[in-house]
Amino acid sequence: MELGVEGRAIFREDHNQFRKTVRIFFRREIEPNLKEWEKAGMFDPGLFKKAAEYGILQAGIPVEYGGMGGDFLHHAILHEEHGYNAAGASMGGGLGIDGSSYVIWAGGTDEQKREWLPRYASGDCIAEACFTEPQSGSDVAGFRTFAKQDGDDYIVNGSKVWTTNGSMCTMLPTVLKTEMGDGTVGMSIVLIDTDMPGVHVTKGIETLHRGCANEAEVFFEDVRVPRERLLGGRPGGGFKQVMSVLNDMRVVEASRFLAAAELAFSLTVAYVKDRKAFGQRIFDFQNTQFRLADIKTEIAVNRAFVDQCLVKAIEGSLTSVESSMAKLSASELEFRTVDQCLQLHGGMGYAHAMPISQIWTQARVHRILLGTSEIHRLAIGRSI
Ligand SMILES: Cc1cc2nc3c(=O)[nH]c(=O)nc-3n(C[C@H](O)[C@H](O)[C@H](O)COP(=O)(O)OP(=O)(O)OC[C@H]3O[C@@H](n4cnc5c(N)ncnc54)[C@H](O)[C@@H]3O)c2cc1C
Fold first, then answer.
1. Number of domains making up the chain
2. Exposed e or buried b for every residue in 186-206, given b needs 16+ CB within 10 A?
3. Which of 70, 171, 185, 355 could be cross-linked to 59 through a Cys-Cys bond (beta carbons 3.0 to 4.6 Å apart)?
């Protein structure tokens, strides 16, 4: 079985070729370095420039804006391949943070797109969207980071947390308030360089995950930001559009979660066909076959829905409820699956050297980030 391609009608030949390039990239540029990066607790930021040389960043952005001129499925493939490759589990958000450029693509002025998107494509700009604050994650209305207008500039004060790859980022599209009001009133996005005076980024929060992912805290202390850095050019302008991009991004991530579940399944099948107990292969126990049968079926059923959502994202008809359903379902399925797969590995499943253990820690957080499962249930529940 070739992971990720078999039986999926949504992909054309150019998508399949693109996937092959991403797989070569993982094999040549990531796998040989992984142990060293895990020791350092962070992968090399130079990886973004390497990825640019392979032409795999900004794949879905038009050529005139520095992209590859592909479509949203090319972008989805880059994310999925983090799921199909065991090294991807170690890298956490990995190269997938180039998805934050879609925030600029959706909400930026033409000038902002021309300035920033080519920099993402060349690997010169490494950026991740900063939403979550220490006192408020699910409750977006509770964000306190504030940008006060001062002549032609804004002065930003506040803090963010859990910024994926924060310590290697050169720029942070930051969600903040430019006007104090109820709910999301006065909410804007400002593009803040990490080397601007007053920006402090921590090395990273120690987590359950022992790979080479990095999640930073960010502090803004009287950071002077020129007005042109306001996304969309006017206060509050970019926020609504960005929320619709997040819908699409959740589906891309759902696709990655299913990819990781498929990888866990295939690693487990190989393991149980090799390992023996009580004079037979672990695979030969009926319990093992029943569990694998359920996993195979659930992944196939979920895959059909998520693929349908990916197509809707390209067509611009994906609803926020469908996006929530895809994210909720894929992340819960991924964790259930990976947990059972780890169980079928016995004690070896708990060893760091076994990829299944890294996939497990990564799957655990997928039920939390990009909106917790509870928040998505709330959103789906409201639509009923
Ligand atoms: C590894 C990792 C990477 C991340 N990457 C990023 C990133 O790059 N950028 C970024 O901005 N953020 C990032 N996050 C943050 C993530 O999006 C938040 O952790 C998530 O949105 C939850 O917010 P919180 O942690 O504040 O939890 P809280 O909002 O404090 O929630 C705590 C618990 O209460 C539940 N809860 C909250 N409200 C309700 C409700 N109304 N009804 C029922 N239950 C509720 C939640 O579901 C959860 O179980 C990352 C987090 C992690 C762990």
1. 3
2. bbbbbbbebebeebebeebee
3. 70
